[in-house]
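Let us work through a complete example step by step.
Step 1: write down the sequence.
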Amino acid sequence: MARRLRVEKIGYYHIINRGVAKNTIFYDRQDFIKFLEICNEASDEYGFKIFSYCLMNNHYHLLLKTNQKNLSILMQKINSRYSIYFNHKYKRVGPLWQGRFKSWFVYDEIYLQTLVKYIEYNPIKANITKIIGKYEWAMSSRKNIEFSMLNFELLDKIKLDKDFSEKEQKKLDEFLAKKIEIKENKLIIKDKKELKEYFKIYDKEKAIFEAVKDGYTQSAIASYLNLSYVSISKRLKTYKQKLKLFEKLKQKGLLWSYSKDMKYNENLTIEHTLKYGDFDDIILAIKLFGKRKVKTIWQKTMQDDKRFIKLNVMIARVFFDMNVDGDYFKRLKNGRLEKLKLLAS
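Step 2: predict the structure and record it as tokens.
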């Protein structure tokens, strides 16, 4: 399934990215400095400024302002260059980042000062320090002012001697709860549905997927459902694999009798995987949907279809441990055909 396009508009963005599996991405002083150097080089190349940052051991926050519609490319440059440096230094392979970076377009400058304070407050929340400005790898420490990308305009307006209050958190939550779209170059701001609404409309897997797509964190969903983060992550991964299998069938033209614009359908995905997918696809379908579900769909839609006798023998023997041969399927009455005959008579 295609990813939702990011907002690409000139202005302020709050960026977050984490290490894969929440692993450490900054081990020593050299790592922190290297990341800032890479950001500074990208700033010279792509023309953005950073108004706040906080680099924690396993994630980072940036508040930057773009002068062109180039957020995706500049962040790709920063993340990929640091990943190359990190993997080379620590002799590791594989992805460094948990996934695509998260970004929020700051459409209302009222939130900017609150957002800066929130970013700078991270080391206090993590019990690293008790005072904003004392953590070396936050912009408020002012220990890295040699970088030309840094703009202290917003920091200079904020009183950093006070804690990040509940009122400020609520204000920020209201901002993050907005859903932003751009249509015909116009910014459209909508209120996100409450989490409970997703679970009224969809089954649990799809509800989790839609909520995450609309900006809810997996942690927030886990808290709402009283489940672990790992459980939510597994359900989300499973649903994405189901969508990927469905899209594979569509791209191969195996859903030829249905509209190209049709949305994901669980039963249809199972049926067409059994009929037209390859061996690995069938194994994956059983893993994703469960043997009982797959067998039920097979019995309802396929086992009495005389076009698939050889395939049915293989499926029955290999996947459902049935000791049958072709004659077994030849004797079965085709339920769909019988219904059509009744309708025609």
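Step 3: interpret the result. The chain has a mean pLDDT of 86.
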